[in-house]
Amino acid sequence: MGAYIEDVHGTWDEDVQQAFHEAWMQHKRAQVVEVSGHLVGVVDIEWREDDLYLARIEISPKLQNLGLGAEIIEGLIDLAASRNRAVALDVFDVNPARRLYERLGFEPIGVSGRKIHMRRAHI
Fold this sequence. Notes:
34% of the residues lie in helices and 35% in strands. By secondary structure, the chain is an alpha+beta fold. It has one domain: Aminopeptidase (3-Layer(aba) Sandwich). A hairpin with a 2-residue loop joins strand 1 (31-35) and strand 2 (38-47).
């Protein structure tokens, strides 16, 4: 995500990023993604009143574009649908993951600065 952060926010500031991630970890929602016992990513979801919010999904660059992220998101879509909820997320406008989200049925519903708010209605 570093390249996207720099594109959106300018020069990388280690102190700012450290503070951001420390605050994020306070939520204690992060779940690790393991494949064959190896840590390969992280997922953070939040159940909100109307939807399941995918706050973060990060997959190791070495394992991107192999379908793992899509598989995880499809599982979250199914989980949300079992509770009659939509799935929502935000993505930076420069992040190529946006194409994956669109392919999985997410539609833009708004913009805040460089973040695109997306939502996939439950089926």
